[in-house]
Amino acid sequence: MVAGQKVLIDACIAEAVPRYIASDWCMDFRGLAFGDHPAKNPMKAVHAYLDERESEGEIKQVHILTAGFMEFYWASFLGYVDAEKGEFTYYGTGDEKLDMTTMRDAASFTAEVAIDPSANGFLNCESLVDLACHCG
């Protein structure tokens, strides 16, 4: 992921493309140190590379923060939902909020960002979903 994006970033710079939309589409990883969440290390590396290129005036970076995708949160493999048993598992009290959006909304937001030349930096696409669970 990192090597491929660096090649694309360099190609954009060579062709005078003004912005690069990084393919991270995830939670806000800026507060993480390398190694805190290994799956986010590639995003941090791409961001660092783009920071360098942007500081040199070569390109502007765009990162779309979607948080989690609802389609994955509710998939059985994550263990929150067991449709066969009719069970929903949660952490905490059940009143916590999770940052998430749908893949369709993330795609629509990305398309809007792509055609808006003023859209730069880190852009939030997530919505807070109230997961209050009051089981009787």
Description:
The protein is of the alpha/beta class. It has helices spanning 2-14, 41-55, 70-73, 103-115; strands spanning 19-21, 60-65, 68-69, 81-82, 87-88, 97-101, 121-124, 127-130. It has one domain. Helix 1 runs parallel beside helix 2. The longest helix is centred in the middle third of the chain and has 15 residues, at 41-55. The termini are far apart.
Highlighted features:
single chain, 136 residues, alpha/beta, 8 strands, 33% helix, elongated
Provide a brief overview of the structure.
It contains 4 helices and 8 strands, in the order αβαββαβββαββ. It has 136 residues and is of the alpha/beta class.
Strand content: 15-25%
Helix content: 25-40%
Largest sheet: 3 strands, parallel
Number of domains: 1
Total beta-strand segments: 8
pLDDT < 50 runs, ≥5 residues? 127-136
Overall, the morphology is elongated
Q: How large, in whole angstroms, is the Cα Rg?
A: 18 Å
Q: What is the topology, as strand order, of the major beta sheet?
A: 1-2-7
Number of helices: 4
Q: What's the end-to-end separation, in Å? A: 46 Å
Class based on secondary structure composition and strand pairing: alpha/beta
SSE order, one letter for each helix or strand? HEHEEHEEEHEE
